Amino acid sequence: MRLFPLTLALTLVLAPALRAEDAPVPRNGPESGAVVSRVSGESVRFVAEPQFRPLVLAQDLLGGDLVVTGENGVVGILFVDGTVMRLHPRTELLVKSVGTAAQLELRRGTIWARAARGRSDVTVTTPAAAAGIRGTDWVLAVEGGGLTRLTVYDGAVELSNPQGSVLAAAGEAAVASPGRAPVKVGVANRREAEQMLYTVGTSEAADLLTGAAEDLTASTAGNPDALARYRAALDLLRRGDPGAARALDRAAAGLDRERAATARWLAAFARMDQGGALRPPPPSNADADALGAAVAAAM
Q1: Cα(286)–Cα(76) distance, rounded to whole angstroms?
Q2: Which of 27, 38, 81, 202 has the fewest CB atoms found within 10 Å of its own CB?
Q3: In 3D, which of 165, 164, 134 has the Cα closest to residue 152?
Q4: Half-sphere exposure of 60 (CA within 13 A, CB side)
């Protein structure tokens, strides 16, 4: 059983009765990531296909796919290495490969990304430079003429091209133009950080994790009474009921391994929503634990 890629082959439960044209397209090959949010007007051109098609929730992305956002489009992608990325309007991103060392190409527009600390190993090429990402929170933008702007909020990023390189640390910004060495341009504007953030909220976390759990347990009937308690607890969570966390913890006791891990992660997220610290549940060796940890990095 594939661990993280399988949990990303979501069906999501976001819309159980999706129209056929709104359903994700099944893909063959190792997944690079999956779409976890969108607004309108986004499109994707799959590798080896000449035409663009509308981008839908839960769509798996492979190496070679080109994602484009329109005037009002915004896309959230959860990559298999746990990196969460937001594509802003009028952005074009080529997913070359994602794994132990991700390779992306930003052709135009703006991306923000966050990765789990210590796991980031991403290279993003632009018309002016290559950004070697060792940071956990950063923004990269390509403007007219290929001008590349980098802002680092946490970690460090090396911006380089044949003319030179510069290392931008947390709180620093840098620029690069085609044919000119990159240079630092001052301190990052912290107020801009909140405008850039794409985070997975509790409702989205519930949809992601329950969708993965149902996919992983499709052949498991489960205890009817325990499943009823679980679904009632999920309903409390989606309505913002303060008793959701306790109900999820109680429900977990009678569930199969995957649904139990999902319930415990969602209880942890619900407590965080009420102002507490995120306390991940003990590892259970469930596949849902991998996705829970990745979603936690995006919250």
Answers
A1: 25
A2: 27
A3: 134
A4: 19
